[in-house]
Amino acid sequence: MNIKVILLTFASLFFLGNSTSRAQSQNNDNDSIRSIIEKKRAYNNRKGIGYRIQLYNGSEKRVKTIRAKFRIEFPSIETYLKYNAPEWKIQVGSYKTTLEAARELREINKKFSGAIIIPISK
User: Which of 21, 39, 55, 76 is the most exposed, having the fewest neighbouring CB atoms within 10 Å of its CB?
Assistant: First the structure.
């Protein structure tokens, strides 16, 4: 009697596992899913992925002063200087989501008011 129960359980698990793997492979072969994934990859290549916090944009002298102050207050956060004629920009951090950036922004705004979250662009 115990052998029949064990064999029945084994057979049930085998068939259930087999049907689940077939369902997953059918979903992965779907052309519309592939199309969406390709569109997302193309968008990410064009626009970039993630967010940064921009502290200031303006004159080179002021940007470098803010950068020095920021490095003293937040030494563990990376800083980035960008130049788009005629303005310089100081951006900090690299965040995957706006939520992650917003958490950091609360702390940064205590020392550097006017900071904003911006998407990373290529």
Answer: 76
All domains of the chain in start order, with CATH = 48-119 (3.30.70.1070)
How far apart are alpha carbons 57 and 67 in whole angstroms? 11
d(CA 122, CA 116): 18
The phi-psi region of residue 94 (left if phi > 0; otherwise alpha if psi is between -120 and 50; otherwise beta) is: beta
Find all residues with CB under 8 Å of 47, minimum gap 6, and list them. 119, 121, 122
Q: Residue 86, SS3? A: coil
pLDDT tens across 40-88, in order? 777 766 666 799 999 999 999 999 999 999 999 999 999 999 998 899 9
pTM score, whole prediction: 0.62
User: Is there a contact between 80 and 98 (Cβ–Cβ < 8 Å)?
Assistant: no
Calculate ∠ Cα 110-113-116, nearest 5°.
110
For 115, half-sphere exposure in the C-beta direction (CA atoms, 13 angstrom radius) is: 27
